[in-house]
Specification:
By secondary structure, the protein is mainly α. It has one domain (45-300). Helix content is 40%, strand content 1%. A two-stranded antiparallel sheet has the order 1-2. It is globular. The structure holds fe (ii) ion (FE2) (2 copies). Its cofactor is Fe cation. Its EC number is 1.13.99.1. This is Inositol oxygenase.
């Protein structure tokens, strides 16, 4: 098994994590067949008790996520003046919430974070940066908390997509974009919109949510996590890209490399949402050591 180097790399550095291809096929992770509601994962048509809530969620999300809204949110939250706390304190804060957009999950967030991280750790024991990425990838959901503006669910969770160009048909509940004002704006409704071919996802405005926020927090607090980790945090809800290969024309070479890691990560994010219980206190020291390695003791949020 090839081991990639473990040395932390600069957050914004051009150096990328190269994907050890044999790790992909060696991964021993077993995909469970059903989610907590007894349905297959990400089945938006299944008659679960969540279906109506989820549909209503995407109606609002597609209607309200515009270029103007995203710019406003990025400016406001870019100030990082909402709180000062450690990564672990944030995990505990988040534990109060359940994600309404998600047809698969009805457990406290901390379980999901640790299930994801621990499942990755089992299959990729030497990639400690990826374990930590598992732990922190959803911390941006604190946007739901009163101290963070208590944003509505549609501005925090759910699949993400680029704004400023045409909404690709592979987006879930695509029909609801008809109510988005950008959909009628000739500046924003063409294939490339305000972007150019191969411009790189870093230059693309994504719908606002926990992914973009956590990416901002990690980067601005000068994490030493590698670029693949930041890519995973930023795009893990960008299902049209990693599942359908939509919006490929906006990607550059570095994005292509990082996407390989995101695809690995995604399997764990999605399928660890089953009834596997984690002994939080037992694994806590390990994750505290990782946060010390890759982050300052207190972060600005
Ligand atoms: Fe997420
Ligand atoms: Fe997640």
């Amino acid at each position: 098994m090839t081991i990639v180097e473990e040395k932390p790399q600069p957050a914004t550095g051009a150096e990328e994590k190269k994907l050890p291809i044999d790790l992909v096929s060696n991964a021993g992770f077993v995909v469970p067949g059903n989610n907590a509601f007894g349905n297959t994962f990400r089945d938006y048509e299944a008659n679960s008790e969540r279906k109506d809530t989820v549909e209503e969620f995407y109606r609002k999300q597609h209607m309200y996520q515009t270029v103007e809204f995203v710019k406003k949110m990025r400016e406001e939250y870019g100030k990082l003046n909402k709180a000062e706390m450690s990564i672990w304190e944030c995990c505990e804060l988040l534990n109060e919430f359940v994600d309404e957009s998600d047809p698969d999950l009805d457990e406290p967030q901390i379980e999901h974070l640790l299930q994801t991280a621990e499942a990755i750790r089992k299959d990729y024991p030497n990639e400690d940066w990826l374990h930590l990425t598992g732990l922190i990838h959803d911390l941006g959901k604190v946007l739901l908390h009163p101290s963070f503006g208590q944003l509505p669910q549609w501005a925090v969770v759910g699949d993400t997509f680029p704004v400023g160009c045409a909404f690709d048909e592979s987006n879930v509940h695509h029909k609801f974009f008809q109510e988005n004002p950008d959909n009628d704006n000739p500046k924003y409704n063409t294939k490339h919109g305000i972007y150019s071919e191969g411009c790189g996802l870093d230059n693309v405005l994504m719908s606002w949510g926990h992914d973009g926020y956590m990416h901002m927090v990690a980067k601005e607090n000068k994490t030493t996590l590698p670029s693949a980790a930041l890519f995973i945090i930023r795009y893990h809800s960008f299902y049209p890209l990693h599942k359908e290969r939509a919006y490929k024309h906006l990607m550059n070479e570095e994005d292509e490399e990082n996407l390989k890691w995101l695809k690995i990560f995604n399997k764990y994010d999605l399928y660890s949402k089953s009834k596997v219980r984690i002994d939080v206190e037992k694994v806590k020291p390990y994750y505290l050591s990782l946060t010390e390695k890759y982050f300052p003791a207190k972060l600005r949020w």
